[in-house]
Amino acid sequence: MLEAKAGLVSPAEDAEALSDTILQLYNMSPLDRKVMGDNGRRYYSEHFDHDLLVTQLIEHLQAVSKSGKDNK
Questions:
Q1: Residue 19, class by beta-carbon neighbours within 10 Å (0-12 exposed, 13-18 middle, 19+ buried)?
Q2: 26, 20, 8, 30 alpha-carbon torsion, rounded to 10°
Q3: d(CA 23, CA 46)
Q4: What is the chain written as a DSSP string?
Q5: CA 61, 63, 65, 68: dihedral to nearest 10 degrees?
Q6: Which of 24, 32, 34, 56 sits between 20 and 30 A of 1, alpha carbons compared?
Q7: Displacement of CA 3 from its chain's centroid (Å)
Q8: Taking 60 as the threshold, does the pLDDT of residue 25 lie above it?
Q9: How far apart are CA 62 and CA 64, in angstroms?
Q10: Radius of gyration over every alpha carbon of the chain, rounded to an integer in angstroms
Q11: Which among 46, 48, 24, 45 is positioned nearest to 7, based on CA atoms?
Q12: Confidence of residue 68 (pLDDT cuts 50, 70, 90)
């Protein structure tokens, strides 16, 4: 989330930090929350889009297949 600027984080099993984070989110302006949401959607599209992942997988498999043929 930090890289994407799409949310807030708090340490695991730290109820006080979680409470502070929730209050921070609550006190943010609607525009700031919208910007975080937009950032999250953009980050998802750039890194986890189905078509993108399939294309990357195909390219990887083709490279592995080609490297296997070169070794024979």
A1: exposed
A2: 10
A3: 30
A4: -TTTT------TT-HHHHHHHHHHHHHS-HHHHHHHHHHHHHHHHHHT-HHHHHHHHHHHHHHHHHHHHHT-
A5: -140
A6: 56
A7: 8
A8: yes
A9: 5
A10: 20
A11: 24
A12: confident
Q: 8 and 24 in contact (C-beta within 8 Å)? A: yes
Percentage, residues of the chain above pLDDT 90? 74
3 pLDDT tier (thresholds 50, 70, 90): confident
- Written as six digits, the tokens of 50 are 């189905």
User: Position 13: which residue type?
Assistant: E
Cα 53 to Cα 7: distance, rounded to the nearest angstrom? 23
